[in-house]
Amino acid sequence: MEIPDMASLKLQSRPEMFDFEGISMTHFFTDNWEKLQNFQARPDDILIATYPKAGESNA
Hints:
By secondary structure, the chain is of the alpha+beta class. It has helices at residues 27-30, 33-37; strands at 18-20, 23-25.
């Protein structure tokens, strides 16, 4: 396996954090915040909450 030189790697920088209502956030989470604040659940809605998937599956 060939290892590339460091100059050829395209590293992504971390998104800029800013204070959002007292919490450090990125724009990824806050760009549609108004839609979240105005969300109205209906009595027949179902909420599914799980841990995010990470890593490889051996299945």
